[in-house]
């Protein structure tokens, strides 16, 4: 069953307290982020229903938001999600080559996960790091000025962390 | 070297933290505003400064503030737009990451002026590490009596909260942002009513960009008259430009709005010229939605005057031969870049980011992406170029929010200035996949970048 820890529940309360009385729906996006972090990096229907019950709103209100925003994953993803930018400024700085390199290195296509469940490759639109292109998001942080060598390092770093 | 107002202390080690910020003159402007000026005087000063919205639209900030409705007993809100998602733009991120207290101080002065006791910073979800920095700065400010109840004994109360988005360019549009802040899909609202009358939770709300709110600090510190001395004409003060693409020194620069585009691109103080000794082909000077300009129209206007880094000069010639300063997302392309492909990435971007509310945008952006993809991959027909032109014309002006226009303009400008490159793609489908069209005549008569 999906259930936040005591600590996370307190965090939810703290978020709801940011808004005026009765406006707890405003907490939806922050709470969905918290849920995605807590329950395996994606939002299952069960997770979304749980969030709805916490905020006392209808499940459909959660689904329509979760499906709108691109950071919410509605299917399972690997332990490490490579979100590589492909928009103009990254493209003119060579993101195509980086994407091809990651594909061949991991042996997966866009939107796929490695068989060991470690890596998922997702292409995203501009993340606001155009001056430090090519780049990708990995968890909470950006990895910038990517080169094939740097991609190798990141993959090795993830593998080391997982062991 | 130009004068800096926002980044003047950016180089000081530890400026991210309260003590260092305060020691270097931080919160002096807030003290002045709250203790000796009062809301009306602050508003007058901001109006006098000529400050224009730094998010892209360039609307006068003082005027926007003066529109806020003040019904009795209804709370007012200030919302800081930190959704920075326009491709090519990464300036607000720099301010928030390195000088968070400048923003907090700006929010304090602005909230005080508007009579708002709660302020929300809506930050794009991908900037996931920045809320921690902002929240730390907020806590420090609170511990030092700059936030919370009865700030510095003035009786003014203010709380600032940070809210993350979750990946949606459209939430940079102010009414979509408000919807998102209310926990909904980011669908822009029909205006009127404007947020100044009915905004967040139907209360009077002002939404301003990060850089705009930060600029209030030097305006109060030095005065509107001093601010207006920087820059030219209606482009007063300084502007942050985030420069990227094929240049030697990508990054965030604060410029006085009185330098030429040529100086900005080629001088060592700024972009440092084109990378690898290549030649300049084209530039998108204000974020992906503004018209791309070929080099010959970028450095000089159609009238032959030097093109300056100002709102007016970049717009000189209208969309026929000019562009816009926009958000200051300055994307430079060298001779090896393909205009068709670049336009395709933007069309794909806008298709992905369309909220889907209005048919012309929802359908048109997808259609443009498809047609551009065909041309780029060698499956295009000559008639596709006219088709693209036709589609963008039918999106522009026919949508609730400006995303439709933002999607249409880059396609229109690419065809307007680089039609022969599109035709070359259609006529030489195989060759177009192997190499790019190159410079053609766009850079003439331009000098090669001086030194590399």
UniProtKB/TrEMBL annotation, chain A:
Keyword set includes Cell wall biogenesis/degradation: no
Residue sites binding [2Fe-2S] cluster per the record: 85, 90, 126, 130
UniProt GO MF annotations: 2 iron, 2 sulfur cluster binding; active transmembrane transporter activity; inorganic cation transmembrane transporter activity; metal ion binding; monoatomic cation transmembrane transporter activity; NADH dehydrogenase activity
Keywords for the protein's UniProt record, in alphabetical order: 2Fe-2S, Iron, Iron-sulfur, Metal-binding, NAD, Translocase
InterPro entries assigned: NuoE-like, NuoE_dom, NuoE_N, Thioredoxin-like_sf
One Pfam short name: 2Fe-2S_thioredx
Family recorded in the similarity comment: Belongs to the complex I 24 kDa subunit family.
Cofactor binding mode and count: Binds 1 [2Fe-2S] cluster.
Cellular component per GO, a single term: membrane protein complex
Annotated GO biological process: inorganic cation transmembrane transport
Name of protein: NADH dehydrogenase subunit E
UniProt keyword annotation of Translocase present: yes
Cofactor needs: [2Fe-2S] cluster
TrEMBL record, chain B:
The EC number(s) this enzyme carries: 7.1.1.-
Domain NADH-ubiquinone oxidoreductase 51kDa subunit iron-sulphur binding stretches: 340-385
An MF annotation (GO) of this entry: NADH dehydrogenase activity
Catalytic reaction annotation: a quinone + NADH + 5 H(+)(in) = a quinol + NAD(+) + 4 H(+)(out)
Cofactor: [4Fe-4S] cluster; FMN
Alphabetical GO biological process terms: cellular respiration
EC category: translocase
PROSITE patterns for this protein: COMPLEX1_51K_1 (PS00644), COMPLEX1_51K_2 (PS00645)
Top-level taxonomic group: Bacteria
Keywords: 4Fe-4S, Flavoprotein, FMN, Iron, Iron-sulfur, Metal-binding, NAD, Quinone, Translocase
Gene3D superfamilies membership: 3.10.20.600, 6.10.250.1450, NADH-ubiquinone oxidoreductase 51kDa subunit, NADH-ubiquinone oxidoreductase 51kDa subunit, iron-sulphur binding domain
SUPFAM superfamilies: Nqo1 FMN-binding domain-like (SSF142019), Nqo1 middle domain-like (SSF142984), Nqo1C-terminal domain-like (SSF140490)
Pfam families: Complex1_51K, NADH_4Fe-4S
Primary role: NDH-1 shuttles electrons from NADH, via FMN and iron-sulfur (Fe-S) centers, to quinones in the respiratory chain.
Sequence similarity: Belongs to the complex I 51 kDa subunit family.
The protein's name: NADH-quinone oxidoreductase subunit F
Species per Swiss-Prot/TrEMBL record: Chitinophaga jiangningensis
